[in-house]
Write the structure tokens for this entry.
Amino acid sequence: MSVAKRLFALTLFVSLLVAGILVFAQSTGGPTSGLAAAHFAAPPGFDQSLVSSNAVTTPPPALVFFPVARQVAPPCETHTASMMLEASAPTRTVGDVVTVAARLMNHGCAPLGLPQYRLMIESDQPEPVFDPNEPAPVTHSLGIGPGGSDAAEFVLRAVGPGQATLTASVSYEVHLGYPGPAYWAASSAGPLAISVTP
């Protein structure tokens, strides 16, 4: 037999012998199984419990956003207002000047606009106590929002002795929304008594 054939036969024999030894060692838990385990050992500090051949990746829970309910104010259906009448002094002497203020206050939810103020004077004497005896109306081209107020002043001069009784009224627009609806309304105040001495 030639040298080449002998080498081939020897190599084949050694390969089969090694393969048989490996199969036997793995089946019996021999030293080669330890070598295999050492070959695939995890590095130090690695949590081996996290490794699984059947690991299933679980996606993170989906974020769900719920809409926040907004508080909607109830619709404004009417107005609430009041009026106050006051004078700078309850008693005057002939020739003195008195200032009378008529104030409109908005207590409701609807804006008020274009207030027009009127002052009425009644005397216990046949002759007027104040001048002017019939003051001209006062109109303000403005709006009064909820919680706001507006006032008009009337300046009177005492021209005769006696007692005068004053009342006031105001008319205004009420807006329940823009551009509408809108309507006219009025408020009043008084009576307010002012005495004039000679």
User: Anything to note?
Assistant: The two ends are 164 Å apart (CA to CA). The longest strand covers residues 182-197.
